[in-house]
Amino acid sequence: MKITTLTNPRQTILLTCRANGKDNVMTLDWHTPLSFEPMIYAVSIGKNRFSLNLVRKSKIFVVNFMSKDFEKEVLYCGRHSGKNIDKFKEAKLEKEEAKTINCSRIKKSLGYLECQVIKEIEVGDHLLFIAQVSKAELRKKGKRLFHLFEDKFTTTVE
To answer: What is the pTM of this model?
Structure first.
């Protein structure tokens, strides 16, 4: 049995990252708040993911909270590697510059967390990045995207 059989549904986010002038966006379910003060957030990224090395190198990322309207884009970003393609362009996701870190974020996200990595922990086949949030904003309310299994999602009430 997979652990996600018991732990899902989990809110799906799009994580944006940048290193050496390369922007990427990846789909991620494994993320969590850790502290109110200071505001600390963690994401768990698989060791085989292209974004892993971008985050390791730059020590920054943005957590983009997406609405149910972006299910198609979320699936695209989860199925394709950014190693040889521009997933922003291919998924038609408009990006904008973060305010406090040198990273892009998704313009039409419901909200976001701009994060600076303060610790990295190896946890089996993933790396856990613990980060201090330098800026957080809820832009608008909306039905958020929650991953059930495979390509199936659910949502919340607003």
So the answer is: 0.95
